Records
---
Amino acid sequence: MPTPAPRLRADVSGLPRYVPGRAAPSDLVDKLSSNENPYPPLPSVLAAMREELGRVNRYPDPASSELVTDLSAALAVPPEHLVPGTGSLGVTKDLLRAAAGEGDEVMFAWRSFEAYPKLIWATGATPVPIPLRDERHDLRAMADAVTDRTRLIFVCNPNNPTGTAVHRTELEHFLDRVPGHVLVVLDEAYREFVDDTDVPDGIACYRDRPNVAVLRTFSKAYGLARLRVGYAVAHPPVAAALRACAVPFGVNGLAQAAARACLNAEPELLERVQTLMSERAKVTRALRDAGWNVPDSQANFVWLRTGPHTAAFADACEAAGVMVRPFGDEGTRITIGTPEENDRLLKTAGDWRP
Ligand code: PMP
C-alpha cells in the first residue's frame, strides 16, 4: 500500500524558490556574486567569538539585550524600538507575518531584492511588484497602486540589484501619500555604503512616522554574513508584533557577541567600507570608459545592462575566474571586491563584446 504523503498547504509547492549566488567552485575564483564583504573578521571580532565558543551548551539571550543596548546607544533610538533577528531576512519574514496574510497585498519595486516575492507568498499574501522606472523605484506609481488591501510596502534603499537610491524629497512625498495604516519598510541593508547626501537615512525618517520601519544588517558593511544577524528599528506596536512572531532564541550567541564587537570596532570597519566605496567609484569609472552604461550605485555592487547577453557575459567572467550574478536577460550585478579582484573583473568586462 503506498504511504500517504503528509498534507501540506496546497499553495506551498508553487512558491518561488530563492536563487542564491552559486558557491565558488574553488578558492581561485573571485566571488563577486553575493554582495559579501571581501574582508575577513577583525582580530577583535574573532576574539569576541572565541570567548563565546566555550558557552555554546547554553541558550543565547533570547532578547539579545546587550546588543540592543549597544545599538540603542549607537543609533540614538530607544531600546524598545530595536528587534534583532536572524539576518535582516529573518526580520523581514517576521514583519510580513506580523502585518500580512491571505487576501492582503504587499508591494515592492521590481526588480528588487529577490527574496521579497518568495517571503510574501509564504505568508499567503499577494505580491504586488511595481516596475522600476529607469532602474529606480517609481514611488509615484507605487503610491498610486495602494489599495485598501495593501498592508506593507518595501522600499529597498539602495536597491538590490541596481544599486540606485531613492532621494529624500521623493521619499517624503511618497510617505505623505501612503495611508498611516500601511507599514512602509525601508530596507537599508547597504546603508553604510551611501555617500550621496540626498539619500535619506531611514532612521531619521522613521522617528516621526509610526508606520515606517527600517531594516539594517551586520552582513554587508560589518562582514558577518555567515553569522546571520540583522535588526529592525520600529515604533513599539510594530516592534512588539515582531517580537511576538520571532522564533525564540533566533539570534545565536556567537552572532550577538560578534555584532557587539563590530559596533566597538566601527571606525576600523568603516575604513574598509570607505575603501570599498573608492573601489566602487574606480570600477564605475572604468566600466563607463569601456563603453558600459552603469547606473550610479550607492551600494557595494554595480549593475550592468547586459540584456540578452547576460548569460554569455557571466560565462565569460567565470571563464576568467570571476563569478558575477546574472539576472535573466536583464542585467548583471557585480559585487565590489578587493582592489585585486576588481582589477581582474575590469580586465574581463572591459574587453568583453557580445
Ligand atoms: N535586504 C537586501 C536588500 C539584501 O540585498 C539582503 C542580502 N542580499 C538582505 C536584505 C538580507 O541580508 P541579511 O544577510 O541580513 O539577511
Note: Residues 35, 87-89, 113, 156, 160, 187, 189, 217, 219, 225, 230 surround 4'-deoxy-4'-aminopyridoxal-5'-phosphate (CB under 6 Å).
---
Amino acid sequence: MTLYDVVQVASLGQGFDERLAARYRVLQTWQSPRGLAGFGDELKSVRVAVTSVRHGFTQAMFEAMPALQAVCSWGVGHDTLDLAAAADRGVAVSTTPGVLDDCVADLAWALLLSTARRTAEGDRYVKTGQWRALGQFPLTTKVSGKRLGILGLGRIGEAIARRGTGFDMAVRYHSRTPRQGVPYGYEASLVALAGWSDFLVVACVGGAATRHLVNAPVLRALGPRGILINIARGSVVDQAALLSALRSGELGGAGLDVLEQEPAPATEFAALDQVSLMPHVGSATRETREAMSELVLDNVIAFMQSGKLLTPIALRESS
Ligand code: NAP
C-alpha cells in the first residue's frame, strides 16, 4: 500500500494539481466517485490536507487522518472548516488571505455601482429594444459623495473603504473591536451604522457568530433610499427579512454576491429590478485564482520543509 504525505480533497486546477503531485505522494480523493469516503488505511500516513472553502474540512475528515498536522485551504472564509476540531487535535490551518482582497473589493463596488445606477437593467433596456419603445430610462441613485458603511473592516472591508474615498465618500464601519490607525469612524452599533449609511457593505466573516447579523431592524434603519451590498456570506443577512424589506419598499435596493442557499434556485429576487446578483464570484478572476492556488502550494511546501505554515489562522479566536 502506498504511504501518502498529502491528501487533496479538491482539485485546484491542473497546474496546481500537477505541481503538488510532482513534489509529494498525493492522494487525490476528488478523482474518486466516493471522494474521501472511498479510502481508509491510505489516509493513515497523511500529514497535510489540501482543501477549499467550498469543500471544507469536517470533524469526520480529521478523524480519518490520525497523522494529520496541517490543513491548507484555498479561500479566505473558514466557516466550512471545523476549527474547533483542528484546535483539539493540534492541527494547523492556513487560508489564502490578502491575495484576493482587491478582486472582492472590486466586485463589491461593481455591485454597488450596478445597484445604484441600475447598469444591468440598463443593459437589458438597450438590448431588448425598450429604449426605443419606452424612451428615457428611469432616474437612478447618485454614488459619489455619499455615506459608505462597512460591516467588518478586515482586509477586504478596508480595501472597499479605500475605494470609497476615491468616490469622495465619508466612511464608517462596525465590527466587534474598533481598529487603531484607520481614518474611518467606528460605530459601536450596527443599527446606528445602518441609520447613518446610504450604502451598507457586508464584509465580515461568516459562520454561527454572524448569522443574521443584518436583520429587519438593520434593514429598516438603512431605509427606503438605502442600498445593501453583501460580498461576505449569505448567512450574515436574514434573507427572508431582506426580501420582505425590498418588496415593501422599506429598503431601496441590494447587490448580492452571496445568498443563503448556493447555488441559488431560480430566485425570488428575479422579479426585483432594484436587486443586482452575482453567483459568488468575488475572487473569481484568472489572476486572483492563480495567486490563491500559488499560496496554497507555498503553504504546503513551507509546512513540509519547516513544520510551519505561511498564513496560519488563529484557531480559537476565529471559531
Ligand atoms: P478578515 O480580515 O478576517 O476580516 C473580518 C472582519 O469581520 C473583521 O473586521 C472582524 O472584526 C469582523 N467580524 C468578525 N466577527 C464579527 C462580528 N461578530 N460582528 C461584526 N464584525 C465581525 O477577513 P477578510 O479577509 O476581510 O474576509 C472577510 C470575509 O469575506 C471572509 O470571511 C469571507 O466570508 C468573505 N469572502 C467572500 C468572498 C466572495 O467571493 N464573495 C471572497 C473572499 C472572502 P472584529 O474581529 O473586530 O469583529
Note: The domain at 6-99+287-314 is CATH 3.40.50.720 (Rossmann fold).
---
Amino acid sequence: MSQNRFQALVLREEDKKTNASIEELTMDALPAEDTLVKVDYSTLNYKDALAVTGKGKIVRTWPMVPGIDFSGTVVESSNPKYQPGTQVVLTGWSVGEKYWGGYSQYQRVNSDWLVPLPEGLSTREAMMIGTAGFTAMLCVNALENANITPQSGPVLVTGAAGGVGSVAVAILKKRGYSVTALTGDIEKHAYVSQLGATAFADGPQWQEVPRALEGQRWAAAIDTVGSKVLARVLAEMDYGGVVAACGLAGGADLTTSVMPFILRSVKLIGVDSVMLPTKDRLHAWQRIVHDLPMEVLRGITAATVSLNDVKNAAEDMLGGKLKGRVLVDVNAA
Ligand code: NDP
C-alpha cells in the first residue's frame, strides 16, 4: 500500500439508509486537522456497531469513517508535543461520530484528542483495552473516589460479559474486590468466572419493575445496562452504596424513585469517557497498566477482525452473540 493511497471503511447515507463499504482513499481526502496518524488498531464498541449497521443515530456528519477509538504512530504534526514516531491512543471526543475515526489505515486528528501511549503498553494492547476498557477503569475510579474499598462489601457488575463489563470485572478482581456478575446468558458464566466474578445475580426479577426499596445486596455497582436493570440495582444497594452508571445497553430510560437516595444515602455517579478532560485520561491510562493484568486482557479479546469483517462483527454484537472485546486490525487483509 503506498503511503498516499490507503483503505478505510466509509459510511455513506443513501435513501436514509447507512451503506458501509471499504474505499481506497488518498491523504488529501482526510480532514484538515493538525496531526496525521498511521493507525495500527481500532476496536468494535457498542456505538460503532450501531453506526456501522445504521441501527442507531450515531453518525452526525456524512460521509463518515467510523471507529470511536484507535492506536497508532504519529507521521507528522504541527504540535511539537507529537514528534513523528510517537505512539498514541485516542478515545472519545466524538471521533467516529462527528469526526473521522479509526477504521482507516491513516487518520488526521486534532492533537488535543491524543494521549501518548503509556509506557509498558503496545498499540495492540491499548486497543485490546479500547474505549470499553478505559471506561471500565473510569467506573472503578469513580467508586474508589467515593470511598469504596474491597472491605466495603460485594460489587455488582451488570452486562458483565460485554466489553465494559468484562474489563470492570477483571480490574475489580485484581484490586481485591468480591465481584458478583449479572449476565443475561448462562452460557457466559464460565467466561465471566475466569475474569474474576465469584457469584452471579441472574434471575427473572431483572425483567420486572423493582419496588422502591428491595433487600440490600451491594456495596457498589458498575452498571452498563440502564433502564429496569439500573432501577433494580439502585433499589438493592446497601446503605451508603455507590453506583457508577456508564451504559444503556438495555435502554436509556430510568424509572426509579428517590427512596434509595433519601433513605439509604445511595450515590449514583455518571461516568463519561467522551469529553473527559485530558489530565483525567492520562491518569486512567496510567492506572490501567497496573490494574489490568495483560494475560486476563488477552482472554477478554474475543476476536481480531479486518476492516472487511467489521460489519458482521457489528451484527453479532447487537445480536448479543459476542463475549468480550473485538479488536480491529486495520492493516489485516
Ligand atoms: P457490549 O455490547 O460489549 O456489552 C453490553 C452488554 O450489556 C451485553 O454483553 C449484555 O451483557 C448486556 N445487555 C445488552 N443488551 C441488554 C438488555 N437488553 N438487557 C440487559 N442487558 C443487556 O457493549 P459495551 O460493553 O461496549 O458497552 C456497554 C454500554 O456502555 C453501552 O451502552 C455503551 O454505549 C456504553 N458505553 C459508555 C461509555 C461512556 O463513556 N459512558 C463508553 C463505552 C461504552 P451480558 O452479555 O452479560 O448479558
Note: The two ends are 11 Å apart (CA to CA).
---
Amino acid sequence: MSVRRPLVAGNWKLNGSRESVKALASALSAGAQGLSCDLLVCPVSVHIADVQSLLENTVVQVGAQNCSDEDAGAYTGEVSAVMLKEFGCSHIITGHSERRALYGETSSIVAKKTAAALRSGLTPIVCIGETLEQRQAGQLQSVIDEQLDAVINEIGIEAVGDAVIAYEPVWAIGTGQSASAEQAQEVHAMIRSKLQALDAAVAEKTPILYGGSVKPDNAAELFSQADIDGGLIGGAALDAASFLAIGKAAS
Ligand code: PGA
C-alpha cells in the first residue's frame, strides 16, 4: 500500500430488503470506528436515503451503483448523478462488468456516465477488466487500453485524478476465484504506468482498487501489493463482519 489512502467499497448489487439493508448499515456504523481506510457502501438506489441517514455521522460513505449520463429530462427510469449527490452520495460505480455485459453499456456510455458523476462533484469508480476468453487470447492489455482510453478521451487525463479506477477481472467476479495477488499487481502496475505516461501526478494520486472474490482471508495479501489501493467488494460486502474484516486488512 502506498501514500494513497486505501478505500474499501462494498457493491451490494441488487440485494436486500428495506429491513435487511438497514440492519447491515447499522452493523457497519457500529463497527467501523477506528479503521484507517475509507469505507463506502453502494446500495440499490431506492435504499440510498435509508442507508445515508443511518451512516450520516459515521466514517462510512454512501455511493450508487450506476447513474444516467444525463442530468435531467425525458429519460424514463433513469437516476442522475445530480440527484444522487442531493441524497448524500459521494461516489458512483461506473462501467461495472455486469452493466457492460447485461445492459449493453459500451465504453463510450461508461465514459459519459463517468463524466456525469464528475460534473456533479461525485467520485466515479470506473470499473475495467477482461473476460477469461480475452485473457486467454492475449488481449488483456488491449481490453484495458480500450476501456480506459474511452474514459480518458471523454474527461481528460487530469480529471482521472479525481476518479478511482477498479480493476475487476470478469472471471474473478462472484466466482470465489480471486486473481492471485501477483496477477492483480501485474495489471494494476500496467494501468498505473499507462497513466504515468500521460501525467505522473495523476498516476501517483489515482487509487486503483482490485475487485473479484475479495474475502477476509485473501484481502491482506492483495492489499499489500504496491499498486493495489483497496478493494471493490461484492458478496463479502453483504456481511458486516466480513466487510469490516476486509476494511481492517486495508487499514
Ligand atoms: P465479488 O464481486 O466480490 O462478489 O466477486 C465484486 C464486484 O462485482 O464488484
Note: The beta strands are 7-11, 38-42, 60-64, 91-94, 123-128, 164-167, 208-211, 230-233.
